[in-house]
Amino acid sequence: MTAKEAIEFTLKAYKLNVISEYKFHPERRWKADWYLPDYNTMIEYEGVMSNKARHTTVTGYTKDCEKYNAAALMGIKVLRYTTLNYHQLVADLDNLLSVVLKAKV
Asked: 92: burial class by Cβ within 10 Å (0-12, 13-18, 19+)?
């Protein structure tokens, strides 16, 4: 199972409302890999290990920074994962869900 497949599997296991390839910006064509509308959170998989990884070039990395900064300025939380840290998603989701539950109490 690839890291991206593991992320998708984890999101399904949590039974969250997830939108794949969500166009989050009103003017730009940017899309979040996954968006959790109930938590206003986007999840990005940085495929730095793939042959076509634009994330590894200065231009590509800079464009990603613009995208993530725009999301943050819109109030969207951004969680980013690679093949080395995707296993952290479970702990991050648990943290996100507990913070939201505490805020509702």
From this structure: middle
